[in-house]
Design a protein that fits this description.
mainly alpha
Length: about 210
C-alpha cells in the first residue's frame, strides 16, 4: 500500500511539472513597441510613420521628423510648439478677416492684410513642421513674393488698389496650384465644369 501511494505521488508530481513546462513554453512575451527613428511621437507613432516592416527609410509627412538643414538646432518639441503657435495665429488672422468680408468694399485693405497674414502664418507652420528646405519650389517662391508684395502695399504704401492687386495675385497662384493637383490640369477642370453644368441642366429648370 505504501508503495502504491509513493508511485501515485511521483506520477502526480511529474504531471504537474510537465504542465508547468508546457504552459511556460506557450506563453507569449509582449514587449514595448520599438521606437521608430525619425517619427514625431516616438514608438507611439509607428502606425503613421510610413516605414515598412523591412525597415525602409522613407517616412511620410507630417509624421516625419528628420532634421532640416535650414533648422538644424530645433528639436521635435520645439518644432511642434512652433507649428501650434503659427496655426493659432493663422486661424486668428483668418477669423478676423472674415469679419471684414461683409464690408469688403469699405475695408478691402484691412481684409487683404489680415488674409495675407493668415496665409503667411500658415506657410510658416508648414515650414516649421516639415522643414523650409522641403518647401522650396518656384510656385512657393512666387506665392511668398505675392504675400510680401501685398504686405508692403498694405503697410508701407497704404494703397488699397495695390493691396487688392496683391490679393488677387495670391488667389491666382493658389488656383494655379489647385489646378496642378487636379488630374488633367485645366482640361480636367473644364471637363468637370462641363459635367457639373450638364447635371444642373438636367435636374434644374434652366
Amino acid at each position: 500500500m505504501a508503495e502504491l501511494n509513493r508511485q501515485l505521488q511521483e506520477y502526480l508530481s511529474q504531471s504537474k511539472s510537465g504542465g508547468t513546462k508546457s504552459s511556460s513554453s506557450t506563453a507569449v512575451e509582449v514587449g514595448e513597441p520599438e521606437a521608430v527613428p525619425g517619427s514625431w511621437f516616438g514608438r507611439w507613432s509607428s502606425p503613421w510613420s510610413g516605414q515598412s516592416s523591412a525597415g525602409s527609410s522613407g517616412t511620410s509627412w507630417p509624421w516625419s521628423a528628420e532634421p532640416d538643414p535650414w533648422l538644424p538646432g530645433l528639436t521635435r518639441k520645439q518644432r511642434l510648439l512652433g507649428f501650434g503657435v503659427c496655426v493659432a495665429l493663422s486661424a486668428l488672422c483668418f477669423g478676423l478677416s472674415v469679419l471684414y468680408a461683409p464690408l469688403l468694399l469699405l475695408y478691402a485693405r484691412k481684409f487683404a492684410l489680415l488674409w495675407t497674414l493668415g496665409s503667411l502664418f500658415a506657410v510658416a507652420a508648414a515650414a516649421v513642421l516639415r522643414g523650409p528646405g522641403r518647401l522650396v519650389s518656384p510656385g512657393a517662391a512666387g506665392y511668398l513674393c505675392a504675400l510680401a508684395g501685398t504686405l508692403y502695399a498694405a503697410l508701407g504704401l497704404r494703397s488699397t488698389a495695390l493691396t487688392a492687386l496683391g490679393a488677387g495675385l495670391q488667389g491666382a497662384l493658389l488656383l494655379g496650384a489647385l489646378l496642378a493637383l487636379l488630374p488633367g490640369g485645366s482640361a480636367g477642370m473644364r471637363y468637370l465644369g462641363g459635367w457639373t453644368l450638364a447635371v444642373l441642366k438636367r435636374t434644374l429648370p434652366i
